[in-house]
Amino acid sequence: MPFHRWYCSPNLYTKEEKQAIATAITGIYSFLPPFYVIVNFIEVDKDSCFVGGESSDNFLRVDVQHLANTMQTVEEKREFMKAYEKVLEPFTKGKGINWEVGVSLEDVSRTVYIHAIDF
Fold first, then answer.
1. Which of 22, 39, 40, 101 sees the fewest Cβ atoms within 10 Å?
2. Which strand (E) or helix (H) includes residue 25?
3. The domain 2-118 belongs to what CATH superfamily?
């Protein structure tokens, strides 16, 4: 269950670009039902985004959370990043935007089990 958060300045992407990004990201997960893939665009004003201590309206931070981790090997993780960066390219490098991506891999079954033990 992939959850993608795109932190960006207002108006960095048009409504049509956001739709294209969400569609492209969903395509990466062709092995999942499309409704499992969530993409949120979280707009952050220039006066609330600082890169190196300077305000910025040309920066994108992407956080990807995989709640049902299936990537076990380094090669699988590299393949995912390669596919993801290909999807990002027209909307980042192609627009001259500074960006970074963070991916967290979680195993929900272990998380639920750990919380159940705490009770």
1. 40
2. helix 15-28
3. Macrophage Migration Inhibitory Factor (3.30.429.10)
DSSP-based three-state secondary structure for 77: helix
DSSP for 98-109 reads: EEEEEEEE-BHH
pLDDT, averaged in runs of 10, over the chain (119 residues):
94 96 95 94 95 92 84 87 92 91 74 50
CA distance 110 to 113: 5
Structure tokens at 118: 């705490």
pLDDT at 107: 62
Tokens representing residue 33 in the block: 């039902």
Domain definitions of the chain by residue range: 2-118
Q: Which residues are within 8 A (CB) of 77 and not within 5 positions of it... i.e. 6 or more apart?
A: 71, 103, 105
pLDDT at res. 115? 46
CA dist 105 and 68 (Å) reads 8
**Cβ atoms of 7 and 60 closer than 8 Å:** yes
Contact 57, 49 (CB under 8 A): yes
